[in-house]
Amino acid sequence: MSQPLLVGLDIGSSRIRLAMGQISSSPEQGLSLSIVGAVEVPSHGISKGVVSALEDAVAAVSAGLEQGERQLGVPIEEAVVGIGGTHVRIMDAKGVVGVSRSDGDIRPEDVERVMESARSAANPANEEILHVLPHGFSVDGQGGITDPVGMHGIRIEANAHLVLGLAGNVRNMTKCVFRTGLDIASLVFGPLACATAVTNARERELGVCVVNIGASTTSVILFEEGNLIHAKVLPIGAEHITSDVAIGLRTSLDVAEQIKLCHGSSVPDMFNKQDEIDIAEFGADASERISLHYVSEIIQARTEEIFEKVEEELRVADRSGLLPAGAVLTGGGAKLPGIVETAKSSLRLPASLGAATHLQTSMPELIHDPVFGTAAGLVQWGFEEVRNEQFRSGPRMFEKGGDAVKKITSLIKKVFRSFIP
């Protein structure tokens, strides 16, 4: 494969997903990204976004990589890896530095220094800093600046959000990936990558809440004026809906999951009292007819609880009912029929289903599915890093011939050596 390859690895509690993209360059369009492969395999050894059994997790990730390599026909050497879980948190930080040039012109190096100052403001003993995300600069006391490069000043300040993860959980995840022989190009907060992939710049500018409903966790990401303002991972997800159905119907989890997938809805009014199914058709040992209206009431109760917890996060961020772009639902749990209507009524906001539909791909049936939002977002994240590096390095970075591919690979390869146990 002659063109540079980017791989996004989403390690979830129930499924492991890989999205594989190619970067191409042309004088007319510049750099462009196309998703050329997608793989989904069962996950083992992962619970609520963290490693619970290392060997099982390594085997599951290896199985996904093997399928991806067979699909592409080339070895996968590195990936942009997503990390999540309830241990990830956001904290505010502030950095202050003096402008280095005697003429007072602010250069990119000054911005890098002030961001490093913000990073050093936090000294978490048992946490790793995953991201330092700026959300506003001040130059000589003048605030409201989004990009100070080229401006004149003596003192530059930066307000930033630090995305922190528990060191043990971060290192276990990176150890799991390294054990498969895969290098980590970047370690990214998965829900953040997903949120930037399933929303557009205008939505993030106006104010939007992205709710990623996974198997065992639900992440809530809030943007306003283009910046991340709040994030939280909740320990509740689609598996809890399945458990409720299993308890309510006194049947197994496998049968409950099949009923949920085939006939589940969070809006009981979609069914009449006479709408019934026989649970034996879904693998139950004994025949029993149950009301779909009753099943839907069970599902509705749990989905309303999920959105109640999302509403609590909106209140924490002081944005309850105040996001013009509304809520964007993504992840496997977002495909439940009726859940968009439940979100609208529970959150008192516009709501829609979100997926990375803007990405070019040869397999839209997968990549444009909400379940691949995080994997596709990780590929896009890596692509933005390459594009930013090209902007800093100049257009000759992608000249044809020679070691072009090696140049790109070396630019996106930022292995997290500090995370290796």
What can you see in these coordinates?
It is a single chain. With 421 residues, the chain is α/β, with parallel strands linked by helices. The protein has three domains: 5-86 and 167-197 and 356-419, ATPase, nucleotide binding domain (Nucleotidyltransferase, domain 5, 2-Layer Sandwich); 89-163, 2-Layer Sandwich (Dna Ligase, domain 1); 231-353, Nucleotidyltransferase, domain 5, CATH 3.30.420. The chain contains twelve helices and 19 strands. The chain has a six-stranded mixed β-sheet, with helices on both faces. Strands 14-13-12-17-18 form a five-stranded mixed β-sheet, with helices on both faces. The protein has a four-stranded antiparallel β-sheet with strand order 7-10-8-9. α6 runs antiparallel to α8 (292-316). Mean pLDDT is 88; it is low at 395-409 and 411-421.
In terms of topology, how is this protein built?
Elements: E1 5-11, E2 15-26, E3 30-42, E4 46-47, E5 50-51, H1 54-72, E6 78-83, E7 89-98, H2 108-121, E8 127-139, E9 142-145, E10 155-166, H3 167-179, E11 183-189, H4 190-198, H5 201-206, E12 208-213, E13 218-224, E14 227-234, H6 238-249, H7 253-263, E15 276-278, E16 289-291, H8 292-316, E17 327-330, H9 339-347, E18 351-353, E19 360-361, H10 364-367, H11 373-393, H12 404-412
Parallel strand pairs: 1-6, 3-19, 6-11, 12-17, 17-18
Antiparallel strand pairs: 1-2, 2-3, 4-5, 7-10, 8-9, 8-10, 12-13, 13-14, 15-16
Helix pairs in contact: 1-3, 4-11, 6-7, 6-8, 8-9
